[in-house]
Amino acid sequence: MSKQALQVYIKDAHQAGMSNQQIMQELTQAGWQVHDLLDLIIEPKPTAVATPPVILVENLSKSYGQVKALDNISLKIHRGQVTALLGPNGAGKTTLIRILTTLLLPTSGQVTVAGLDVIRDAQKLRGIIGLAGQYAAVDETLTGRENLEMFGRLYHLTRTAAKARAIELLHQFNLEDAADRILKTYSGGMRRRLDLAASLVIRPQVLFLDEPTSGLDPRSRFALWNVIRDLVANGTTVLLTTQYMEEADQLADKIFVMDRGHIITIGTSDELKNQVGGDILELHLVNHADAARAAVAIRQFGTEEAHADPATGIVTVPVRGGSAVLVDAVRQLDTLGLKVLDIILRRPSLDDVFMKLTGHATE
Amino acid sequence: MSNFSETSSDMVVMIGRNLLRYRRLPQLIVFSSIQPVMFVLLFVFVFGGAISTSASKYVNYLLPGIFVQTVLFGAMMTGVGLADDLSKGLIDRFRSLPIARSAVLVGRTVTELIRNVFVLILMTLVGLLIGFTIENGFGNFVLALLLTSFFGFAFSWISATIGLAAKNVETVQSAGFIWVFPLVFASSIFVPVETMGHGLRVFAEHNPISYVANTVRALILGTPVGDNAWYSLIWIIGILIVFVPLAVRSYRKIT
């Protein structure tokens, strides 16, 4: 074996996860001298040994009669990541979450969470995951404390441990003052916080959040985002679904965009935005009815078709060329007598990404 | 903890939670108690004179029947409660927890059993106030109440199956009572079946509710029980054998 071949051999061995000591042992047994090997072996530290994904979905389908809610979906999610499933109603996000949390049986395909099969090891899996959001609720006739103690008991904590954990969570979620009030008196934001707390009773390995902030006012939404960020900072793996682009943008490391039972693209928020390329020119028209005409007028500046929304009077088109386009567009609109309230050149939002990928808006 | 003690602990927690709900919403108990009490008073004072029965006083004939009717209507609350939890998303939460698949259903049916026993005791007290007498010994009276409660428990499982299938409170309320009403009235609960027309009478005689009502009445009044007790037990066990697995199965398969 030449020295070069030896180098390749060692590299492969490292990648296979063997330690320097093991490689050394093997090669010396094959007749190599230790001093020949030293400089070759010590230098390349093996790159981090790939940990198995915490969520692994392979060829998953779910049908209701003729309707395919999920159509041959595969995905991997690694520990410590925050992943968002982004898509409009009916995209299949909730169906996927329900399968991952053992609430729904898949029609076909393989699904494991933390190495446990969602069908075979369902009961074991339920003991290590948390679920919160639109379809997992808390009991509104009980107090916050009673709810948390009940869920603690149902996770098989002892009475004392359940009580102690409830106190911790009430403190963590800033609900101490409301602890002994019945949930009916809680605000929407408080309920969601308690709901989230209930899913954390056992410090789950994976936390599933199904539309965690839907229906909340912006302030409560923002507060809940901070709570979720704190959890993530402490290493919880989170999979959340959302219809809000901004939410995925704010919280997620990685975004899976879903539409009609398929995953149509994957990436970080920036990667997705780069798929649109360039900037977005956005017009707000005085006369909403002018939207279609304006779209035709500014088509020439865009890299793609302009999108007009007659309901809001907003027209968008992806452009390249920076502020020069802005000037040209204003001049063109002026010539045609189309009055604008506002004209903006901005970075693409995830809405634009969705529009580009699916040809239709998210809502 | 062993699996058995975990499962029983799950059930105890669920019963505790359901009872706490009743304490928080006392109107549920109040209304489900007022109705049977009202039935007793109306039947005794309005129909009492017109209906002639073998019992010395109509109230003694009627009360055992009203007991059975009450637990049946009470049992229908099982499905209503489950549908309520289902529509609010609580069932999903429970299903995502590592608890026994039967815990939520057993918790609910046992809760309604406890509530029924409470209501039966209340009705007995009201009955005693308007002239009801325990003629056949306290032991037999308790036995009658036990049989009544057990029958209600079996019906709870039918109601649970309906509740899980219908999934919304209003549907369960109407779907639950629509078939119970004719069953209750075409039985020996209010009037002796001998007074009914032939076809109806054949139906009423074989109605499980009649078997139970006859047994309960015989135990309380001290008349011969006959085969009624056996038929009652067979019906109760039969209902449980069919509907417990059916309810648990639909609980597991909720989509």
TrEMBL record, chain B:
It is found in: Cell membrane; Membrane. It is a multi-pass membrane protein. It comes from the Bacteria. It holds the Pfam family ABC2_membrane. This is Transport permease protein. GO terms for molecular function: ABC-type transporter activity. Keywords: Cell membrane, Membrane, Transmembrane, Transmembrane helix, Transport. Belongs to the ABC-2 integral membrane protein family.
